[in-house]
Specification:
alpha/beta; Rossmann fold; five-stranded parallel sheet; binds 1,3,4-trihydroxy-5-OXO-cyclohexanecarboxylic acid
Amino acid sequence: MNVLIIHGPNLNLLGTREPEVYGSTTLEDINAMLTDEAKRLGIELRTVQSNSEGALVDAIQAAKGWADAIVMNPAAYTHTSVALRDAVSAVGIPTIEIHLSNIHAREKFRHRSLIAPVAAGQIAGFGAESYRLGLLAAKSVAAR
Ligand code: DQA
């Protein structure tokens, strides 16, 4: 089973970026944790981070034919990007939307996700653990 992990804009700054909201775990730590977890679950992982919307669309399109599931933290593009939503719809790969913070308990503009209606499901609010839960969810939906 192959899973693509996508990290959206500003997630390269994890560790120093608003640690009171996002925690002190770095993106490198999260990717290392996911690599270990994937090994345990028998999943092959690829990981992409970009600050650019177009590069994220390219990554979703390139996953077609390889990925059985996508775990994506679209970050700020969650709330704005028709392009990412259309890419998820277009490739038809089951996608788990994840967030470190509970977006529904934050500012109003974060409550709306353009991705959620085309995602298999959403996990939010568990810090770095959201990614591990996302990987478990990916395994479960890809096995359906
Ligand atoms: C985020 C929540 C988004 O609203 C925000 O723009 C992010 C991170 C999260 O993981 O909690 O950059 O996706």
